[in-house]
Amino acid sequence: MHQDLAERIQDLPRFKELVTRRNRLAWTLAILVLVVYYSYILIIAFDPSVFGTPISSESVITIGIPIGAGIILMCWLLTGLYVNRANKVYDAITEEIVREVTGT
Amino acid sequence: MKKISLMTAFVSLAAMLVVGAAVAAGAIEGEATKLPVNISAIVMFLMFVTGTLFITYWAARRTRTAKEFYTAGGGITGFQNGLAIAGDYMSAATFLGISGLVFLKGYDGLVYTVGFLVGWPFILFLMAEKLRNLGKYTFADVASYRLQQTPIRALAACGTLATVTLYLVAQMVGSGKLIQLLFGLPYPVAVVIVGVLMVLYVTFGGMLATTWVQIIKAGLLLTGGTGLMLMAMAHFDFSLENLFRQATAMHPDGLKLMEPGGLLPDPVSAISLGMALMFGTAGLPHILMRFFTVPDAKQARRSVFYATGFVGYFFLVVFVIGFCAIVLVSQNPEFLDADGKIFGGNNMAAVHLSRVVGGNLFMGFISAVAFATILAVVAGLTLAGASAISHDLYAHIIRKGDVSEKKEVMVSRAATILLGVIAITVGIAFEKQNIAYMVGLAFAIAASANFPVLLLSMLWKGLTTRGAFIGGFIGLTTAVVLVVIGPIVWVDVLGNAEPIFPYKYPALFSVTAAFVGTWFFSITDKSEAAAKEKAAFLPQYIRAQTGIGAEGASDH
Question: Which of B109, B321, B330 is nearest to B222 (CA)?
Fold first, then answer.
């Protein structure tokens, strides 16, 4: 890509909007995953018995099971959320930018 | 030419399997840990091999250009690629190893799988689209996009080959032992079969065959795993409460089975293992390469969505399978030797379970799926290693980019054969070695050498060649040294009493060292070249964000 074209795109309001919005979502979700995961393993490192509490007095299932499975499910749902936003919003803005600079 | 050699190879392979089975049949009585020759498993495996060799034949006719060889022409859909990525990730080690870990330790297996999964959303949010928009064949294309080709590609090739070789040898040794157990074939025969088949897939069929072998295997593994879980859960009236109650009553750990055990003994180990799993995933060359097989960033995103779903689902299935095996296998005299130990070790828990719930035929199916899994994973690894040799080392460093496509693909095929020979030789030589450190070290190197440079090259304008090169090698060296002087190699392999470095997992230190080193040697780089590299970030950034100028799919 030529430097002048790159500079032209960089100055487009739509491009700034694209980058700001996408970065905001991507970093929010990435940090959310990091915080959830590291809280999980640090609780395990400091006090594993926290996750040994049964979910009810009659059950042998501990809260650790739904929490662990829940993190796996959350990871998948968050990827779904990102893909959905990207398909609906970011791709549309990207197409506008491409149209604008290529003039088609 | 191709057709003839493929047929010859197939015939000789079939002959090898038959001879191997006959040899093994004589040796069974002597060894208690070996299972009898499993005819249904061998028949089903031969069906898989026949099918995949036909695919390879089909793919070989569509694999002529470099783009077709490295990226299957770039026309794989997001769904297909998601399955293939999931397949790369769901190795036999994941299936048998994690169900074995659950079988032994219960909840700890879940802690491990969570760590294996969290890398995926991270890859999607920060890397997947940019990788696709900037990349061509290998992740070095992205890392060296605006930096000097020779040093950065040399670094990436070192990282790739170290990761791939360690991973490959670990898979070869593991597969040799597994196949010995499952099929009753002698260890060297098993290693040779795996090696020969993987070389056939990759040299003739390139990425197209490798991808389809992986997709079929992923489908088989997901189906087989689900079937195994459902059939086993029928013994518990499909009630998890029921399952966990019986498992805790039967297991020596009792209710402790339902909470974290000793997997993460202290905060440093916890964070370190977490970083190795998370960032290691984002630095595995054979997985990164898959992002170049889809036509655009949209499909790259979708790949991760599907892959995360399949892998996450499979992990949960494996967790339930491990618990079912505690109840149905651990006290079952059919599977215990004279000392009360389970035949073939804990990693055989899932296979034994398949026999309890589905008889010999179903066990044959699960064994064949495990074998297929190994084959598909080693093929992917070999392709990534061969690409680093032909595309990064040969085409860009030795020939400085002045090479015909035909020649480059030829070198890649030769490199595949070379890697196959190395994998077979080392695999046989390491039969009796303790190889437990290898996969962990591969992840540590991927996280410390490949990942920091790749991530910073896409996100940080200030990265320079000097920073990336020195920082990457600091990460690589730190990871290797800390593993060697740590408990896993220094004590368990070399037999010293005390480790010099107290932690099993080096990633916290080696990844940090790589990032700090890269940062420091970049910001202090005041050369003219560095200024140019920083200026070149803008066009790269615009292409990464918009996909303008990105590699497209080939026409057909």
Answer: B321
pLDDT at A104: 58
Say how many domains are in chain A: 1
Phi, psi of B336 (to 5 degrees): -110, 140
Domain ranges of chain B: 58-168+208-369+437-546
Q: Nearest 5°: CA angle at A90, between B88 and A73?
A: 45
Q: Which of B118, B241, B264 sits opposite A75 (nearest CB)?
A: B118
Task: Identify all chain A residues contacting B241, using CB atoms and an 8 Å cutoff.
Answer: 59-61
Q: Residue A17: exposed, middle, or buried by beta-carbon count in 10 A (0-12, 13-18, 19+)?
A: middle
Contact A61 B110 (CB under 8 A): no
Which string of DSSP letters, residue by residue, matches B266-301? SHHHHHHHHHHHHHHHTT-HHHHGGGGSSSSHHHHH
Residues B239, B405: contact at Cβ < 8 Å? Answer: no
Q: What is the pLDDT of residues B234-288, one digit of tens each?
A: 999 999 999 999 999 999 998 999 999 877 888 898 899 889 999 999 999 999 9
Contact map slice: A 17-76 vs B, CB within 8 A: 18-19, 22, 25-27, 29-30, 33-34, 37-38, 40-42, 44-46, 48-49, 51-52, 59-62, 64-65, 68-69, 71-73, 75-76
* Domain presence at residue A28: yes
- Contact between A26 and B125 using a beta-carbon 8 Å cutoff: yes
CATH topology (fold) of B58-168+208-369+437-546: Sodium/glucose cotransporter (1.20.1730)
What pLDDT digit, counting tens, does each position of B92-136 carry?
Answer: 878 888 999 999 999 999 998 999 999 999 999 999 999 999 999
CB contact under 8 A, A41 and B271: yes
- Token pair 């061998």: residue: B42
Does the residue A73 lie in any domain? Answer: yes
Q: Pick from B241, B260, B274: which is nearest to A48 by CB?
A: B260
DSSP string, B443-471: HHHIIIIIHHHHHHHHH-TT--HHHHHHH
Q: How far is CA A102 from the centre of its chain?
A: 31
Domain membership flag for residue A56: yes
What is the pTM for the complete model shown? 0.91
Of B195-199, B218-222, B430-434, which range is least confident? Answer: B430-434
CB contact under 8 A, B256 and A52: yes
Q: Is B218 helix (H, G, I), strand (E, B) or coil?
A: helix
Q: Which of B371, B346, B424 is nearest to B182 (CA)?
A: B371
Average pLDDT value for residue range B468-486: 95
Q: Answer yes or no: is A46 within a domain.
A: yes
